[in-house]
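Annotated sample (chain length 401).
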Amino acid sequence: MSKSIKIYISVLVLIFILILISDYNQPKPIDWRPTYSVNDKIPFGLYVFDKEIGGILKNQKVERISDVTPYEFLDSKYDEDSLVETYTVKGTFINISPINNIDDQSMKEIMYFVSHGNNAFLSMSNFPKPLMDSLKIEYKSNFKSADKGFVWMANKNLNRKAYKATGEIADYFSKIDTLNTTVLGYEGDPKNDKEVNFIKVPYKNGNFFLHMHPVAFTNYNLLKKDRSQYTENILSYIPKGDIFWYTKMKTDENVSSSPLRYIMSQPALKWAWLLFLIGMAIFMVFNAKRKQRIVPIISPLPNLTIDFTKTIGNLYYQEGDHTNIIDKKIIYFLERIRTEYLIDTTKLDDVFVTKLHHKTGKDEKDIQELVFLINEHRNSYHGSIEEDLIRINNAIEKILH
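Output written by the structure step:
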């Protein structure tokens, strides 16, 4: 790893540490999203209500519905036997949501469930159209100022204290069937500007309890002083019996399917991820500039001297001029001795043999044999010329290699 790359990495690590230090003492930002999820501890989640519902609705079995739609759940509880044709369960269907999260088919099934002597409690800011048409109700939105943001119960036998509302007050029932509808709660100004936000509407053999201030069930409301009393008063209207609570929110459709959704949802992890990407981009840019280009392979120039020597040698050998080859071998050998070992080669005698032995470290007998062969050749003793060439060449090879 080069020195420059180490410097870049060190700078990035330092920046990352500084970001962590600066964020360490920063208060965690509050998540104000209205998720209405039983798993969320944020202000507008239903975690506290989920834990406390058993204490509020005492001696009532609560079954949470989260994996299927209301239609799928209730339809599976219906006995279609001609002698029965009714639901195998009895109780109250509950739904708490900031928006309408019930599809029309499920709403029709809920109405059918209520018509068989059951009940439904719906706390939402708007309701499905099939329900509104059947119950002859309408609603409007009108934001209230802070001095008119109160909610309270209509029943004189309950605590009619006006509670400061959590969040904004806007939705209310603008039209109801006054002959069949019972008003259970109000919102706005208790003195002169109140509007209906909680009603009870009979439907065949059962009843609908419709409430338009679902924020009353959130963590923020239940943990604020005495506002939980208002929530308990609302739930006190739910008849005794089993509770079927639909907890699935439509917000699941807006959840990103990206594998990085959790990292991007957390500010610290998000900045760490972005810093990593920026660092990698910087590294790639600088590294690409300093990257040595591929060096092409260049074949070495051929040694023409060796080729020429081989050619001349082959020529002499093919011509059968062995004597000439021997003479050139001897000349080459003596030139090497003079050049490399600085030994006089004028007279090849015992003195020459001794000096060459000491300087080369070769066997003295091999040197004597070579000197003998050279002198013998010079004295024009000829046996088999080709044989002499081989003997002299081998003797020279022993000394020079």
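Annotation: The two ends are 45 Å apart (CA to CA).
Annotation: Residues 267-290 form the longest helix (24 residues).
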